Amino acid sequence: MVIKRNNETSCDAPPPAQVAGLSKKVVDVPCEEVGPGASKDGIYKNPEYYCYNNVSYFEAEVEMNKYRLPQPSNKS
């Protein structure tokens, strides 16, 4: 998948949003074709859909775990 923005491709440009706590493994969009007809100007306009798998959510959860606050206790 190649997304063109201002004469750049997604491979050349950094990810559009820098998310504190998430590594490139979770945020980075691959440069190769990710799905049939998936591109911002193609038939299927959500190519990011093909970049996720069954554990993508949990990879982000594990990486963000160190930033979570502990749950308060209801016991005094």
UniProtKB/TrEMBL annotation:
Cited Pfam families:
NDUFV3
Query: InterPro entries from the xrefs?
Result: NDUFV3
Q: Which GO terms describe its cellular component?
A: mitochondrion; respiratory chain complex I
Name the record gives this protein = NADH dehydrogenase [ubiquinone] flavoprotein 3, mitochondrial
